[in-house]
C-alpha cells in the first residue's frame, strides 16, 4: 500500500480553502493508497516515510518563501516530491517569464524592478504592478497613467519588504474574455476553466481579492493548447512534472499570451470538474509506481 502525503497549509482556527483536498484523500484511499493531508510546516511530519509527497495547497508559501524553499529542498532529498524541488524553486520566482519569452513562448510583456532600481512606470496605458514572488493576487494592483503616485507607493512598500516588482501592461482582453486556466496532470490536459478579471480599477494593492471570480468550465482553443504546450516544453526539468496550470489571456492582437505558469500549488478546481478526480488519482498512483522499487 503506497503512502502518499498531500502537502497543504495550516488554516489555523478557520476552515481550509482547499475544498478539493478531502475528496482527493478519500479517492486515493479508495484506490488502495494510504493517503493523508499534512501541513507542509508540521515539525512532526516524517516526510521520508512517504513514497510520494504531492504539493497541493501550500497557499501561504509566498509569505514565507525562504522557509518554504528550504522545506522543498529538504523534502526532495528524503522522498519523491511532486513537482520536483528544482521545478518548484524555478517557478516560485516569476522572473521565469523572461526565460520563457526568450525561448519563444508568447507571454505578457514583463519588466522587473528590484529593490534599489529606478522605478520607471508606463506612461501611455494601463498597467499592473505585482510581486515576482506571490500568489492569490497578493500585492497586485491595476493602475492608469494618472495613478503613478499610488503605484510608486506600492513599489516602495514592496521594496521595503525585499520584493522584486513586476510591471506589465494591462491587457483589455481580460475584461472581455477573462483568463483561461488550462490544467495538466500526468502529462495530459486535465480540464480548463475561465475566470473573470481579478484586478478591478481602484482596488488597493493590499486589499483582499477574489482569486477566481466567475469561474466556469472552458473548452480551450487550438491556439491556447499550442501556447500551453510550448510553455510546458520550455520548463527546465519538464519531464518530471506531475501537474501544471497554464494561465492565458488575450494579447492586443487577440492571440493567447502566457500570463502565469503555476507549477507550485495550483488550485485544481475539482469541485468544478468532478469527472477529473479519477484521472488525478490515476496519475498520482502512476507516479508512485514508477518510483517505487
Q: What does this protein look like?
A:
By secondary structure, the chain is an alpha+beta fold. Helices cover 28% and strands 24% of the residues. The chain has helices spanning 21-30, 65-78, 85-91, 96-102, 148-160, 173-177, 222-233, 277-289; strands at residues 3-8, 34-39, 52-57, 80-82, 111-113, 127-131, 141-143, 165-169, 179-185, 188-195, 216-217, 243-250, 256-262. The strands form three sheets. A five-stranded antiparallel sheet has the order 11-10-9-12-13. Strand 9 and strand 10 (188-195) form a beta hairpin. The protein is globular.
Put the structure in a nutshell:
With 293 residues, the chain is of the alpha+beta class. Helices cover 28% and strands 24% of the residues. It has 8 helices and 13 strands.
